[in-house]
Amino acid sequence: MASGSKVRSGKTEKYLDVDELLKNLNLHGEELNEVVLAKEEVRRWPEVKWLAAGTILTRKSFSMQSLKNTLQAAWNPAQEVKFHEIEPNLFVMQAFCLGDWNRIMDNGPWLFRGCALMAEAFDGAAVKPPTPNRVQVWAQIHKIPPLFRNNEVLSQLASRVGDVVAVDGNVVQTRNGAFHRIRVKLNPAKPLTRFVPLTMEGSDPMFLQVKYEKMPKHCEHCGLMGHTYLECGTGEYEENQLQFGQWMIAEDIYWKPGTPGIRTRSAASEGGSVRGRGQKGGRGGGRFAGRSAHNQRKWVPIPSGGKKRNSGEAGLGMDREEDLEDSTSSPLKQPGVTGQAEKDSGARKKLDMNAGGEIPPPPPEYITPSEKKKRMRRAADAASEKSDKGSVNSDMVITADVAASEEDRRAQ
Ligand SMILES: [Zn+2]
Fold first, then answer.
1. Domain range holding 89?
2. In this predicted model, what pLDDT tens digit does every residue of 66-102 receive, in sequence order?
3. Which of 7, 292, 327, 378 is the most buried (most CB within 10 A)?
4. Ligand 1 centroid, distance to 136 Cα (angstroms)
5. 402-411 helix and 64-75 helix, angle to the nearest 10 degrees
6. pTM: predicted TM-score of the whole model, two decimal places
7. Ligand 1 center–CA 231 separation, angstroms
């Protein structure tokens, strides 16, 4: 480098791009004498915790202040989350407690003006983080025949939709047929997947419909997220050119908080299925001991590419319910869903070993916060009474956190 000799603008411009400068400058002795950091040494330093890079999946410009206000309102963090803009539509966010971190990273998609926040953990080792490029969502695969309702098939099907984060072996029965839920990271450069074909050797393929829950806006013409068809090209399309219609969006009756639907449980609130970097397991484990089998994990976290996680990567989030009252705007609480960042825990090993090919256990029981309190009172009064209440509606369970989620949705 630095062979050029002309830096013409150097005399007048106060700010020049460093890369541009370096192309033209001849660096001298001390300027080339690097400060070298041994990897070992760096590893000993305390980590910069709960830092993430963020970007909004949109073509439009927006003000950071407006984004910050919207997200803070949606997250309702215990401690203010700091934002630092790196460049237009690339920023770094820092949380200051594990609860906030888990919520932000795992309870999405978070929407700003209908567009998704894409966030990735960032280790702080560069001035500019890589721009996140995945949207993590819940999706549903509909009408899988009973024979194929196992986690292995489900994972393979899910891998046709996106990078698989987790699959839920529980079937959700609805008037219009059954579905299974998956947590996937979508590549915003690819059109949304509408169907996944499943073929038994020698038979015709069955096309299983995919539906998406709480989605950022998407284009009915090209199938990409982040704009509408009216903003796509000229925006003038015939009906038959709109191939990615609203029928791809899941009926919210089956997932929206506050309606009868599948149960919810927050990964973030439940023993930290997802950890901040360097998190040492925190609140996990232990507290689950007395719960019914229903409440044990039903989720299979999967690494990208659809392979099963090893125990170190897998996440467990099924151990706790304590924060149900305090949940966020995600479509549902997210059991056992993990970011890539999490590391530890024996409990997770248990999860992983349980994972493959298991017959889906019955849906877990959901207990509303008020019911929970009542039960605790009753338990104190008379142990016998408790058993009557043991199985409220094992198929369909009321979702939690109506109020909190309503509020969040408004905020978005
Ligand atoms: Zn489009």
1. 45-121
2. 999 999 999 999 999 999 999 999 999 999 999 999 9
3. 327
4. 20
5. 170
6. 0.59
7. 7
